């Protein structure tokens, strides 16, 4: 029996299904979580389905999470979407259910779950769930298609990233056949607030570029306070430095309240996830995250990022 049928059979087996996703959710986290929840509700009307985690107001149009008691986890099927590592699961009660399923597209460095569906060739977890629908013949409603489409568009950067494949577009075609308003979803994902627009101008004005075309920007709490933005508000500016034609790879350093820094690392071609692993992180070859304890580590990291860019240029 293939893994898609195994997952559907487990869904049939349980009366209560609780779906988690990663902390600091992006469109794919919400799209895969919400899309799967909608699919289960549409196909199995007698199931009780919960989506748990902290809500993000700017993405509430994709889905919204709820608070539930510990009692709901007893004898429940738990599904975690779009979360490579257990420490990143939003709501650590994910391990209190009776059966656990992992659905993800990140490198499987932390293998967990009684069933683990990990497809690193997929653009997004929303693409994997769309494949689940296609492979098993589940009913796909317009609402579920909207959620999954938002997830795919978000994780492919409007289909600009290398992770976009022919299968990605086949999945998108299936979703669009439900008559979703794809243009409206695209606009919602492309919209930015006025504070983010002003922060974008700051990034372009103050970013640094190394000798080998690695770029970076350091956003301290003081800077973020000036723009009335916290860590979550910086997501929209992550792709900006990559729009510069000469930049090969780049990092956004975002200070946290405790003085540590969250690193959002991106690349057009040089592989950067091994560098991320050295700094308590990981992710995709061209899109990763990491953490450092304080600003004193920034020069060391930038030097290593520059070396990656240098080695790439030597090989090409």
UniProtKB/TrEMBL annotation:
Descriptive protein name: 3-to-5 oligoribonuclease a
Pfam families assigned to the protein according to its UniProt record, in alphabetical order: DHH (PF01368), DHHA1 (PF02272)
GO MF terms held by the record: nucleic acid binding
Every DHHA1 domain range: 237-310
Domain of life (superkingdom): Bacteria
Source taxonomy: Bacteria, Bacillati, Bacillota, Bacilli, Lactobacillales
Gene3D superfamilies: 3.10.310.30, inorganic pyrophosphatase (n-terminal core)
UniProt organism field: Ligilactobacillus hayakitensis DSM 18933 = JCM 14209
PANTHER family for this protein: BIFUNCTIONAL OLIGORIBONUCLEASE AND PAP PHOSPHATASE NRNA
Domain DDH: 17-152
């Amino acid at each position: 029996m293939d893994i898609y049928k195994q997952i559907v059979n487990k869904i049939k087996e349980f009366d209560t299904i609780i779906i988690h996703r990663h902390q600091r959710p992006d469109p794919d986290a919400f799209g895969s979580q919400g899309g799967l929840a909608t699919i289960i509700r549409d196909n199995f009307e007698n199931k009780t389905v919960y989506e748990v985690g902290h809500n993000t107001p700017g993405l509430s149009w994709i889905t919204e999470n709820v608070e539930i008691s510990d009692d709901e986890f007893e004898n429940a099927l738990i599904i975690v979407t779009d979360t490579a590592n257990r420490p990143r699961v939003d709501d650590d009660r994910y391990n209190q259910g009776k059966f656990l399923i992992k659905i993800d597209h990140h490198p499987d460095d932390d293998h967990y779950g009684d069933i683990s569906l990990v497809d690193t060739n997929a653009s997004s977890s929303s693409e994997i769930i769309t494949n689940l629908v296609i492979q098993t013949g589940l009913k796909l409603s317009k609402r579920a298609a909207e959620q999954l489409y938002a997830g795919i568009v978000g994780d492919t950067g409007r289909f600009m990233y290398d992770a976009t494949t022919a299968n990605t577009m086949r999945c998108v075609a299936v979703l669009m056949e439900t008559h979703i308003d794809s243009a409206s979803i695209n606009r919602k994902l492309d919209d930015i607030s006025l504070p983010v627009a002003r922060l974008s101008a700051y990034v372009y004005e103050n970013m640094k570029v190394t000798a080998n075309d690695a770029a970076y920007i350091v956003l301290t709490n003081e800077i973020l306070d000036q723009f009335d933005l916290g860590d979550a508000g910086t997501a929209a500016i992550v792709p900006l430095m990559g729009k510069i034609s000469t930049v090969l790879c780049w990092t956004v350093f975002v200070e946290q309240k405790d003085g540590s820094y969250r690193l959002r690392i991106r690349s057009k071609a040089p592989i950067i996830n091994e560098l991320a692993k050295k700094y308590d992180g990981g992710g995709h070859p061209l899109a990763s995250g990491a953490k450092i304890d304080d600003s004193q580590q920034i020069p060391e990291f930038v030097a290593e990022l520059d070396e990656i860019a240098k080695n790439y240029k030597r090989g090409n």
